[in-house]
Amino acid sequence: MSAPEAAALAPTARPARRRRRIDLLLWFCGAWLAVLILAAITAPMLGLQEAQDAAKTLLEPVYQPPSLGSTHPLGTNALGLDMLSRIIYGARVSLTVSISAVLIGTFVGGTLGVIAGYLRGKVDRVIGTLTNTLLAVPALILLVALATVLRPSALNMALALSLVAIPGLIRVTRANTLAFAQREFVTVARALGAGRARVVFRELMPNVLLSVVPMCLVYVSALIVAEASLSFLGIGLRPPQPTWGNMIGEGLNGKMEDYPHLVYVPAAVLFLTVFSFNLLGERMRKRWDKREVSL
Amino acid sequence: MSRPLLHVRDLTTTFTTSRGEVVSVDRVSFDLERGQTLGIVGESGSGKSVLGRTVMGLTSTAPNATVTGSVLFDGVDITNPDKKMRAAYLGARIAMIFQDPLSSLNPVKLIGVHITETLRQHDKSISRQEARRRAIELLDTVRIPDPARRFGQYPHELSGGMRQRVGIAIALACRPQLLIADEPTTALDVTVQKHVLDLLGTLCEEQGMAMLLVSHDLGVVAGRSDKVAVMYAGRIQEEAASSDFFRHQRHPYSQALLDAKPHLENPARAELVSIPGRPPDPAHRFPGCRFAPRCRFAQDRCREEEPSLESGGIPSHGAACFYPLDAVRSTKEVSI
Amino acid sequence: MKAAAGKVAQLLVVMFLVSLGTFSLTSLMPGDPAVAILGDNQSPEAYAELREKLGLNEPLVERYFTWLGHVFQGDLGTSMVPPNEDVTSLIRSAFAVSIELAVLALVVALVVSIPLAMISARRPDGLLDRAASATTFGIMSVPSFVSGLVLIALLVNQLHLFPRVGWVGVTDGLGQNLYHAALPVITIALLEIPTFTRVLRGDLVRTLQEDFVLSARAKGMPAWRIMIFDAFRPSSYSLITVLGLSLAQLIGSTVIVETLFSLPGMGRLVVSSASQGNITVVQGAVLVIAACYVLINAGVDLMYSVIDPRIRRVGA
Ligand SMILES: Nc1ncnc2c1ncn2[C@@H]1O[C@H](COP(=O)(O)OP(=O)(O)O)[C@@H](O)[C@H]1O
Ligand code: SF4
Ligand SMILES: [Mg+2]
């Protein structure tokens, strides 16, 4: 028997332990994402050092370690390019690509999932087979295969990444649709003479899409990692265009040992961002579950 | 006179929930003698299961429970937090059977293993063969036909009645002195109910086992208990020897409960149709008698002061009521 | 029985679609495979001859079915890049590396996450639970190429515990093999531990509230015994699903780790072949990976019936 049991049995009243703490971590993550997104949007106006064009940094020091007060607070790379500036321009790419991929994935996957869950039967089986087909090829292999066919542009990258998110979103929206379709409001809508399309798009879609928002946040973080992985492998967006993945890749081949900041700076930024999206998604899901229970 | 087997005093179980403190068992006291049966009856939600589990020290499946008061088993306080000591009692000297025999059996374990593991848990020296032999014997004791074959089957392969017999066999494994049976037949078909209840009665008698028989149905308890305690909103409202109680109920709630007794033809879980209103929200306490909002006989005093079992004035037939029904005579015959 | 047949049929369709997908995808590759293979300073006749040899002049559909016919005989063709090895044997040796990495990593992940989940589930929201959940949450947010690099910096460069790169097959000695596999395996296991722990913890917490757990406690069983012998098996369904999916996904998605540690696995084979335009190898590898997924999925369904006697009897 465990200690709390013993405590519960001891004939002494235990005061209710319920602290309403402010979720510091959540605020920290939110703040980080806000700063990052803001910096990414306003990057050209921030007066940053050179991030891409090595011809302009011939006179800059190379491999300078981070030093917060200097002109290169996060240091420079092999070509004298400013790391801070590269991080922020990298964020533009990472965030744009992964967020648009999730939006595309949610739209396509959500529509297919709701249709499969509501219509069931043959349509469900066809969509299910498609889902399984996409799942049968591991995400990275799928991306590698696509990368060999598609030119490495941001748009193509977003489209390819959305294919990774689609099967999971189909499964979850389908499951949620099955659950929502049992609820009274669908019956009511049908009783009021709503057609299938109306039920799917006006009644089910809004509810189901709202319920997958936490999962979408987790997908944003997964796709940031996927995009970085491709760049790391050298088959994503290519240098000189900076991305977090190809920045980390620059530290390979023994350079990391001498200039650890080449790896640690982008790795830390990548970690913080991925962690923040994950945490946001997780907290939202918990809220959601509680709401569902109390309904 | 020897001390009672089970001596419960002022037992109180409180749950801390998001809606506040819920007192599910409130200052409950009773004694149970060796080999005797105490029937505990009340509407669903009145705290019977929590009482049974608290006596067993199992309330803490919910980590938000607080227990006060004492439970002396054979003179030993088993609310003692010492795990080892409690483990030596649970299953061995005190056993329990549950309402739903399917969900209380592990779906992935053989019937036989449920019994042998209990045997071996409490007697490390017993060999596998011996445990197996004893398990089959126990299955036979609870009148399960073809016990050797049943030994190697899974819970879902048995009918509800058979499963509950398995539950009883598990409980009997270590020849306990006290059996707590929480709604042992509520999940069963009406025709099977009587068989299982009669079996329980017979086994208690054969083995000299005391039993806490918990049910929402007075008919289950009638004729199978030596004493009856009626619970409402976490408190015992009336307590008496069965012979007295079934002849004459003194608490208005007990009488209403008896009027509502479901008959064999009716579904097992009948509602208390004869009393308007619902049991009070346990998270929302009010002064006075707990039954007052539903009581036909409530006076001003009932809404200000809380009656105790002594309020009824007859020590051998306690009733927590200021105006017990001593004038009215019930002529109802109760049996199942 | 009917449901099982439907499932098998669906898996076959999945296989067909995957093969069709990879086949048409790889033939959409930019550039001329003949140029990719021979280099760009050969005579036009040489290119034409090679194209003829590769069957590139036939229509796509015809090529697909020719290829499929060979696949059914276990022949995945020859590599388009010199030394033009047999694709089947290329894949076989790469597959051995990948499956070893994946299986070892899953074993390590299970060894860590099962006890972790049990400790967490003992007291939900207790101190240990929250610590474990925070840790797994952090680990979950570290991409494998980052954790791999950190492990290299720590265990290789600082402590000199493991070799930096390279692979030694089991045939050259189990000890050396495991020595070289250790770091990549840990890196991959780190990816899986958070998911396994969370999934199992959730199910354990739910199972521990079941009546049969209460009745086990009423029988005087100690808490650890209930956790292992009563709660674990009925709580392992989701874990097994996740385990199966992970195994299927890992064969191939260990690309990153294989690149980081220069290991000759499936992922590297696909990446390097893709960058050389070596269509036959990519096709073959993706097909094998997808076949694994399909087989493992079928295996997971089978596993359920082993753990859950209720399904076993119904299915039989
Ligand atoms: N773990 C728990 N947490 C909070 N409240 C509980 C818990 N278990 C039981 N209760 C409350 O205790 C009261 C009595 O329940 P119970 O003993 O199951 O009634 P019954 O008489 O039907 O067996 C109910 O109001 C129930 O809501
Ligand atoms: S005390 Fe008053 S309200 Fe309570 S049961 Fe007796 S008569 Fe009714
Ligand atoms: Mg109950």
Number of helices of chain A: 12
Span between termini of chain A? 34 Å
Oligomer: heterotrimer
The CATH topology of the domain at 95-281 and 289-306 in chain C comes to: MetI-like fold
| Known CATH architecture of chain A | Orthogonal Bundle
Give every kind of bound small molecule, once each. adenosine-5'-diphosphate, iron/sulfur cluster, magnesium ion
Large-scale geometry of chain C:
globular
**SSE order of chain A, one letter for each helix or strand:** HHHHHHHHHHHH
Family (chain B): Belongs to the ABC transporter superfamily.
Pfam families (chain B): ABC_tran (PF00005), oligo_HPY (PF08352)
Subcellular location (chain B): Cell membrane
GO molecular function, one term (chain B): ATP binding
Topology, please?
The complex is a heterotrimer of chains A (295), B (336) and C (316).
Chain A: H1 3-9, H2 24-42, H3 83-119, H4 121-136, H5 139-149, H6 154-181, H7 184-191, H8 196-211, H9 213-233, H10 244-250, H11 255-258, H12 261-294
Chain B: E1 6-17, E2 20-32, E3 37-41, H1 48-56, E4 65-73, E5 76-77, H2 83-89, E6 94-97, H3 111-122, H4 128-141, H5 147-151, H6 160-172, E7 178-182, H7 190-207, E8 210-215, H8 218-221, E9 227-232, E10 235-241, H9 242-247, H10 252-259, H11 300-304, E11 317-319
Parallel strand pairs in B: 3-8, 3-9, 6-7, 7-8
Antiparallel strand pairs in B: 1-2, 1-4, 4-5, 9-10, 10-11
Helix pairs in contact in B: 3-4, 4-6, 6-7
Chain C: H1 2-27, H2 33-38, H3 44-54, H4 60-72, H5 87-122, H6 127-140, H7 144-158, H8 174-207, H9 211-218, H10 223-231, H11 237-253, H12 255-260, H13 266-276, H14 279-307, H15 309-315
Helix pairs in contact in C: 1-14, 5-6, 5-8, 5-11, 5-14, 6-8, 7-8, 8-11, 9-10, 11-14, 13-14, 14-15
Adenosine-5'-diphosphate is lined by residues 15, 17, 22, 24, 42, 44-50, 62, 64, 282 of chain B.
Task: Characterize the structure shown.
The complex is a heterotrimer of chains A (295), B (336) and C (316). Chain A has 295 residues and is mostly helical. Chain A has helices at residues 3-9, 24-42, 83-119, 121-136, 139-149, 154-181, 184-191, 196-211, 213-233, 244-250, 255-258, 261-294. In chain A, 45% of the residues are buried. Residues 1-19 of chain A have low confidence and may be disordered. Chain B has a domain at 249-264 and 271-335. Helices cover 30% and strands 21% of the residues of chain B. Chain B is built from eleven helices and eleven strands. Chain B has helices at 48-56, 83-89, 111-122, 128-141, 147-151, 160-172, 190-207, 218-221, 242-247, 252-259, 300-304; strands at 6-17, 20-32, 37-41, 65-73, 76-77, 94-97, 178-182, 210-215, 227-232, 235-241, 317-319. In chain B, the strands form two sheets. A seven-stranded mixed beta sheet of chain B has the order 6-7-8-3-9-10-11, sandwiched between helices. In chain B, helix 7 links the parallel strand 7 and strand 8 (210-215). In chain B, helix 3 crosses helix 4 and helix 4 (128-141) crosses helix 6 (160-172). Chain B is globular, with a radius of gyration of 20 Å. With 316 residues, chain C is mainly α. Chain C has a domain at 95-281 and 289-306: Orthogonal Bundle (MetI-like fold), CATH 1.10.3720. Chain C is built from 15 helices and no strands. Chain C has helices at 2-27, 33-38, 44-54, 60-72, 87-122, 127-140, 144-158, 174-207, 211-218, 223-231, 237-253, 255-260, 266-276, 279-307, 309-315. In chain C, helix 5 runs antiparallel to helix 6, helix 5 packs antiparallel against helix 11 and helix 6 (127-140) packs across helix 8. Chain C is globular, with a radius of gyration of 24 Å. Chains B and C meet through helix 2 and helix 3 of B and helix 9, helix 10 and helix 15 of C. Residues 15, 17, 22, 24, 42, 44-50, 62, 64, 282 of chain B line the site of adenosine-5'-diphosphate. Residues 48-49, 183 of chain B line the site of magnesium ion (MG). Chain C: Keywords: Cell membrane, Membrane, Transmembrane, Transmembrane helix, Transport. Chain C: The chain crosses the membrane at residues 94-119, 131-157, 177-196, 237-261, 281-304. Chain C: This is Peptide/nickel transport system permease protein.
